[in-house]
Fold each of these.
Amino acid sequence: EIVLTQSPGTLSLSPGERATLSCRASQSVSSSQLAWYQQKPGQAPRLLIYGASSRATGIADRFSGSGTGTDFTLTISGLEPEDFAVYYCQQYGRPPPSRTFGQGTKVEIK
Amino acid sequence: EVQLVESGGGSVQPGGSLRLSCAASEFTFSNYAMGWVRQAPGKGLDWVSIITGSGGTTYYADSVKGRFTISRDNSKNTLYVQMNSLRAEDTAVYYCAKLTANGWYYPFDIWGQGTMVTVSS
């Protein structure tokens, strides 16, 4: 099974700063079938990025995804107050039942 | 507005059963695969099960295979999961989620608000 390792565990930044989140897979992710989700406390996750680099409907363009193979990155170009949350990556490119999430990166206010 | 609303959560003893439901609205339900994802208290996300649009194909995480059964009623726009032989480690918020298309190789784009399941004696 593919293991997704996210780093860092916690990112402490100020509003306006750039956030760079990493997701590393233990095996290559097929066709860049990797997604990023945002989750705020007490809320359901929200899809931000799919296909490694495509923004989901309604997602601000300060969110961007990149990467292929085993190394993927979510970048938030200038943090807004509402962006402080936990971010998860997920691969969906392997045959069932492999459909793993990373352990999450918390972006907190410095 | 596309919406998913879960119900059926609660407290149950180990070994017990529970059925969760998820009512979908404002999209053509039968055109999309649907799934369940859970989150233990203070922990990350774990996918549980996925079902294709017709209900003809189902997928399960190894942790629930043989104990959980996913199903759907397209005439009622409702997704279900029957959870049997529940264990303490099944304690979690269970989210209903829509995939972006009808198949396995797609992400979840719409999520419900979640329903809490607590397994404890």
Amino acid sequence: KNEVEQSPQNLTAQEGEFITINCSYSVGISALHWLQQHPGGGIVSLFMLSSGKKKHGRLIATINIQEKHSSLHITASHPRDSAVYICAVRPTNFGNEKLTFGTGTRLTIIP
Amino acid sequence: ETGVTQSPTHLIKTRGQQVTLRCSSQSGHNTVSWYQQALGQGPQFIFQYYREEENGRGNFPPRFSGLQFPNYSSELNVNALELDDSALYLCASTRPGTGGNEQYFGPGTRLTVT
């Protein structure tokens, strides 16, 4: 079982829909990252969370440390949101900055 | 724009050859991590360097090695390339004073081994 699990693996939605991507992890963490990866590979960091909720534009990320679960929400989705969204955690049992990644959720927004 | 650059963008090598991938971080980012991302998978941690010393390693054989230089650049070297080494290689640097949580990713180098 992977330490970081994401669901769904693939998600196709119509433009304007509200999107939710989920991440569950099985280890103690000091931080959780939501990352966006476009075709071609470059990764952009969207959020870093250690508790609560963060909002940036149409993106909202929440984390529940007790339940070891985080969600990424996209409001008023747009075709340019199409990308792979990756959840990554920083385990507390490592003394360095190692991140453990989920396998990603491929989001496709249809105009 | 993360301020982290990688070179080359793409590379094709033959099995058994050696390759060097390069990463240039922002000034002051004294921690760099390297990750391997196979097609359709999430990135896997290779190793990390802090102040030019290796500071953690994932499940990769010794033929994967690295260097970090005082000018915040770093290298990933892979010897005796195997077909399974074909992947996207990402570097990420960390800005000090942030609790280690702000990571900046480069665009990656796509390596194909034939």
